[in-house]
Design goal:
Blueprint: E1 2-3, E2 6-7, E3 13-17, E4 24-29, H1 33-46, H2 52-68, H3 70-81, H4 85-106, E5 113-116, E6 121-129, E7 132-136, H5 144-156, E8 159-163, H6 169-181, E9 189-191, H7 196-204, E10 211-215, H8 218-227, E11 232-236, E12 241-245, H9 251-263, E13 273-279, H10 283-295, H11 315-330, E14 334-337, E15 341-342, E16 345-346, E17 349-352, H12 359-362, E18 369-375, H13 378-385, E19 393-397, H14 401-410, E20 415-418, E21 438-439, H15 444-450, E22 452-460
Parallel strand pairs: 7-8, 7-10, 8-9, 10-11, 12-13, 12-19, 13-18, 17-18, 19-20
Antiparallel strand pairs: 1-2, 3-4, 5-6, 6-22, 11-21, 14-17, 15-16
Length: 466
């Protein structure tokens, strides 16, 4: 456990392995519920909110330290997650950018004054930290997934107890050390590592935790909700994000976006493209171009700078993707390229004529797969896009803004992007979904407010006579 500003010795340990070659990357503590309870009680006793200017200075310095150490952090991320080094280098910059936005937003967290009509009173509002935030993060993008939860917590003035994925805890521990070096008091941060089925419920249900923010599967998210009953929760539970391509679409743009969104992070992204829904006769041309683009994606060693697609986080995950591809083919989908499995590696796959009810496109498939679903018209595209339990983000490729507006209104998702993929993101805008995709909104300014409470103060008004 990382507490009191350092990694503490442990009698039980958890080995972290490289998904690509099985080598040991590091060893972390396998914390117990008793140790977690003691740590949380210590945070409750010692934590005091910092002044906003100090929070901003810490976050800004942490961003500078990440940029200074981007090379070593990128390599660590690749070794423990299997994501290719070309992408993990971008992840470190993305994390630094999120920290800068959090630093800026810290000093924008201001209340307002409200004259109360007919009451001769003035109401003043102020934002206060909600308290101690439990942050539970997944294995994919193990630096940025931590930053987008911890940085808003620090910006809001909260203390944070972080539980990273047991598959990728080393990056989280490295970031914790960076935060303390940047000036964060040791009592404001704990990182607990170990078995998720043991620590997750204990953390979410602990009486001294004021809020739980979680990113992961729908199944686990529901368990977190039950454990955290009565607390504020912020849940990001994945997506089955469509890219809808209309007949007038710029096909070069559509193919570029489909390749980026389906294959980045080996397809292990909640906002990645999980379905390419093509309307009308443009499908033949789009599919041919997509196959050619995917053919140039190199899959293999994540530390090789030429690699575009690394392994999945485990061989078990790759077997699931392989099975879903096979089931779709058995249901008359056409596998045009890839889909070969070598251990945890799946080569980039393009499938055509995928049935809209195939498990490959009904569930959130975490793998480098571009499944094309052909539909006759826009109404069918909307119907297929809305047909799953997820509702995170969507992209629509068209030159017809009026038609896009109608589609955007009809889609049950948290965000719709015109001539951009569902994987478009920015730290400045809200991020989250509807239906089973989650509760609440991330995005740095929005997370800060989620992690704050509004206190109202009223006083007599006017304050003077005459």
């Amino acid at each position: 456990m990382f507490r009191d500003g350092a990694v503490q010795p442990s009698s039980d340990e958890l080995t972290v392995c490289n998904p690509w070659n099985g080598e040991t990357v590091g060893v972390v503590a396998r914390d117990t519920v008793a140790q977690l309870d003691e740590a949380i009680q210590g945070v409750r006793a010692a934590w005091r909110p910092l002044r906003p200017d100090r929070r901003a200075a810490i976050l800004g310095q942490a961003a500078r330290l990440i940029r200074a150490r981007s090379g070593e952090l990128a390599e660590l991320i690749s070794r423990e997650s299997g994501v290719c080094i070309a992408e993990t280098r971008k992840e470190t910059e993305r994390a630094a950018a999120n920290l800068i936005v959090a630093a800026t937003e810290t000093e924008r967290l201001r209340g307002e004054s409200i004259p109360v009509p007919g009451q001769d009173r003035l109401a003043l509002t102020k934002f206060e930290p909600i308290g101690i935030v439990a942050a539970i993060t997944p294995f994919n993008r193990p630096l940025n997934q931590v930053v987008v939860k911890v940085a808003p917590g620090v910006a809001a003035g909260c203390a944070v107890v972080l539980k990273p994925s047991e598959k990728t805890p080393l990056t989280a521990l490295a970031f914790a050390e960076i935060l303390l070096e940047a000036g964060l008091p040791a009592e404001n941060l704990v990182v607990t590592t170990g078995a998720p089925g043991v620590l997750g419920p204990a953390l979410a249900g602990h009486p001294d935790i004021d809020m739980v923010t979680f990113t992961g599967s729908v199944h686990t998210g529901r368990a977190v909700s039950v454990a955290a009953a009565g607390k504020k929760i912020l849940l990001e539970l994945g997506g089955n994000d469509p890219l809808i391509v209309l007949p007038d679409a710029d096909l070069a743009l559509a193919v570029q976006l489909a390749g980026q969104g389906a294959f980045a992070t080996a397809g292990q992204s909640c906002r990645g493209i999980k379905r390419v829904i093509v309307v009308g006769a443009a499908a033949d041309d789009l599919v041919a171009r997509l196959v050619e683009a995917a053919r140039h994606k190199q899959a293999g060693d994540p530390l090789d700078p030429a690699t575009d697609v690394g392994p999945l986080v485990s061989e078990e995950a790759a077997i699931t993707v392989e099975r879903r591809i096979g089931d779709a083919v058995a249901a008359n989908a056409k596998l045009l390229l890839g889909g070969d499995r070598r251990g945890p590696l799946i080569t980039p796959a393009v499938l055509d004529n995928v049935p809209a009810d195939a498990e490959l496109v009904v569930e959130e498939t975490f793998g480098p797969v571009a499944p094309v679903i052909r539909v006759a018209d826009t109404a069918a595209a909307i119907r297929v896009a809305n047909s799953t339990r997820y509702g995170l983000q969507a992209g629509v490729i068209t030159a017809d803004v009026a038609e896009f507006t109608e589609i955007a209104a009809a889609l049950r998702v948290g965000a719709v992007n015109l001539n951009a993929g569902p994987h478009f993101d920015s730290p400045h805008i809200p991020f989250g979904g509807v239906k089973s995709s989650g509760i609440g909104r991330e995005g740095i300014p929005y997370s800060i407010r989620e992690m704050s409470t509004v206190k109202t103060i009223t006083l007599p008004y006017p304050l003077h006579q005459g």
